[in-house]
C-alpha cells in the first residue's frame, strides 16, 4: 500500500476520481474518506479526523488528496505523513467561489487551499526554473503553454498538483486545462455499470415517481425527428450552477408556446433553491425527468435520450457533467466564460441569457438540426483510457531530493 488516498468529500467527481485511481493502482493503494455531506465542516475539520484515522505505516510513499483537505494542517498533525511525496488535486478555487448573499466572505476555505500549496522563496525560484513560469506580483504566468489564459495564476488550474509544497508540471498533466483533468468515464464502455450513491438526498423522495426514466414513453409515439426538443440540465441543485437563469430561459420558451421536454438530472443536498419547486409547477408536462438518478446506467441512458445539454454555471473548473453529456450525443450550450472556451468550440458558447434563449428557441423550432449534428470538438483526451497512464506515472514517481 504505497499510495495513500485521502478524500474529505467522497461524492460526485471527487468520488469518481478516487474510484478510478483505486482501479488503476489496484492493490498498491489504500483509501480513507469522509461522506459527501456538510462540505464546509469537512473543509474545516477533515485534517483532525484523518490525523486520528489514518494508521502509521512505513509503506506509504505518496499522499494523494483533494484540496477539500487542509494538507498543511494534516502534515503538521502527522509529521510522518509530511515526509511523503504529496499530490494535491484542486477541483476548484475557493477564493473565486461565487457568494450567494451580499455579506462578508468567509475566507477560511480559500486560506486552507493557499496553506496547502504555499511555497517558500527558494522553491519559487525552482518552480520558475522547472516549468518556465514568470512571477508577476503574487501571480504566475505560464510561458508557452497552449490553452492557458495569460491571466491565469497557477492556483486557478484545476489540474494543479503539489509535491511537498511545490506545484510542478508532469508530462501531460499541465498543458492545457482540458488535457490535465480526468473525465472519469469513457461512457460507451461503462453504460452498463450501476452504482448507488449513499448521499442521495431524502428531500427528493417526493419525486420518487420520476426516478425511473420512462424509455417506453420516449421511444414510442411520434417519429423520433418530430418529437419536441429534449433539454438536459445535469448539475448540482445549488446556486453556483445558476439554476435561476436556466429556468428563466425555459419559462420564456414556455410562454411562447415552443415545444420542448426537459430532464433535470443533478443531485440536491440539504438546501434546495426555491426556483426548483416553482419551475416544476410551471413547466408541468414539459418535464420528462426530475431528480437525482443514483444508477449510472439510468443516468447515462437519460443523457443519451436528450438532444441538448445546457450549463448556466457561474463557477466551473472543468465540468465533468457537460463532457459526459457530449459523449452521450448531446449538443452542448455553455457560457462563454470560465473553463468552457478551453474545452468547447465557439459555436457551442453563448455570452448572455438572451443568446441562450435564442439558440434554444431555434432548436425548439427545428430539433432535427441538433439531432443530425456531429460534435466538432475533441473528446478523446478526456477519457480515462488517455489519462489513466498519466496519473499512474505521477503516482509511481519517486520523490526528488531537490524538492
Q: Which percent bin holds the helix content?
A: 25-40%
Percent of residues in β-strands:
15-25%
Query: What's the structural domain tally?
Result: 2
Q: Kindly report the CATH topology of the largest domain.
A: Rossmann fold
On the 0 to 100 scale, the average pLDDT is: 75
Strand order of the largest sheet: 11-10-9-12-13-14
Spatial separation of the terminal alpha carbons: 23 Å
Spell out the CATH superfamily of the largest domain.
Glycogen Phosphorylase B
Q: Structural class per helix/strand content?
A: alpha/beta
Tell me, what's the shape?
Answer: elongated
- Cα Rg: 22 Å
Q: Count up the helices.
A: 17
The beta-strand count equals 14
CATH class of the largest domain, please? Alpha Beta
Low-pLDDT stretches are 130-221
CATH architecture assignment name of the largest domain: 3-Layer(aba) Sandwich
The largest pleated sheet is described as: 6 strands, parallel
